Amino acid sequence: MTQSKISMPVISQENEFILDRLELDNFWHHRSFSFSVDESTKILSFVQKIPVVDPLAVLQQFAPTNTLRFYWENPSKQEAIAAWGITRNLTIESNARFAKTQSFIKSCFKQIISEGDTNINGSEARIFCSFSFFSQSELANKSHPAATIFLPRFQIAKKNKNHFFIVNFPLVNQQNLKQIKTQFSQKIQSIDWSRYEQLSTREREEVSWEERNLFSAQNSQYFKSTVRSALDSIAIDELSKIVIAHAVDIKSEKHFNVTDSLSNLRERHPDCYIFAIGNDRGQDFIGASPERLVSIQNKQLVTDALAGSAPRGKSTSEDVQWANILLKNRKEKREHQAVSDFILERLQDMGLKPHQLPLQLLQLSNIQHLWTPIYAHLPKGIDPLDIVAQLHPTPAVAGVPNKIVFDKIRHYEKFDRALYAAPLGWIDRRENCEFVVGIRSALIEKNRARLYAGAGIVSGSNPDKEFVEIQLKLQSLLKALV
Ligand SMILES: C=C(O[C@@H]1C=C(C(=O)O)C=C[C@H]1O)C(=O)O
């Protein structure tokens, strides 16, 4: 179901509004920035290089909470993107969501006329996508649609030392293109970007939780009983792996601060992808995921098989000890191989020739994982969304075999996974893209947050140890939320 609509008079008013009244706050905040157009309207995608900014600071200052928002950062790759407002969007509530996403994205990029500083790496206009874990949830009041895709009105991007501001602006009258470009350019230059060079640091007080139910005996007993039941199913060969997740609801005295929480996440997890997707109901799904589902640059695909976990040691020797346990443990390796086998098979089914690097460790600040990066060259005709559709969900977040595991997950988990463990990311006109798996994540709304974490269960898993793993993942997330 497309939520796009044309609204010609508003566009021209908006046009006038931007060009004639140049007050900064109104320029950004005016509500008419959040309506979308359909595929018959051309869209000017105007990009301009700007001085150094922190895209998170810009997002904090300008993105209203009543429109779609997206934040994406990979600190170790010196890359960050903030996007907000809607120029075109689509929400999907049905099956075939990846195919529908694909055709929507193609039609969007056909409308775009790119102008400005377009030839520098990182300056591309992107379309942002998030999906729910299941294509159709059986739970009545689900918080997120099966797919949400949008071309934002504004995008701030940082790539290495370069920073860009992009406006995706619906054109009513193309004759004015030159004039509009000049005025956008002047407007962007007139902004005092130095004010957004750094996120204004506030007192990062610890939020006091109503912690009663965080890891209550009831919670832990229920989780462990599901692990035991899954082990029974594994013993009779009904399935060979299942990832069981746990959700914890917390309530703070004050509203959560999304940008400060993101800032904490990027400090604590510089090797992860930091993300946030906000909807028009003021809900934000945020997290720091170590798991790439699909990354494509110039037709080179990279994906991660990531499964099998151990804590980090408090000293170097303890750390090495944990690493060795992880690398040698047969149960952890079984858990991992279920993922790498699945990915290789799915890519081969698409006619690709994937190759994997030797098994290695991905050491994050709080946890370490077994990791196999997998590469493939993409021939013409394979769309990034074909790969997302083929790979989601991998046994890193679901299990083997898929069909049986889906029913079991719905049975064991007393909550809707919503966006947890599902793909989210961006795609550009040249079909470069990055999608991560939305794990190590929380759904935030005002003073409430739901935190998610899951653990892979295979033959040999121990319910107590799996619960410890879940706690480790949840605690790390909890520490970042303010
Ligand atoms: C499911 C999650 O993580 C996954 C499960 C892992 C495991 O069980 O060892 C490791 C990495 C992820 O693939 C999660 O963090 O919620």
Automatic annotation (TrEMBL):
InterPro entries per UniProt: ADC_synthase, Chorismate_C, IsoChor_synthase
SUPFAM superfamilies per the UniProt record, alphabetical: ADC synthase (SSF56322)
Coiled-coil annotated residue ranges, if any: none
UniProt keyword Isomerase, yes or no: yes
Pfam families, alphabetized: Chorismate_bind
Catalysed conversion reaction: chorismate = isochorismate
Domain Chorismate-utilising enzyme C-terminal span(s) in chain numbering: 221-473
EC number assigned by the record: 5.4.4.2
Domain of life (superkingdom): Bacteria
Key words of the record: Isomerase
A GO molecular function held by the record: isochorismate synthase activity
Family: Belongs to the isochorismate synthase family.
PANTHER family assigned to the protein according to its UniProt record, in alphabetical order: ISOCHORISMATE SYNTHASE ENTC (PTHR42839:SF2)
Record-given protein name: isochorismate synthase
Organism of this sequence: Hyella patelloides LEGE 07179
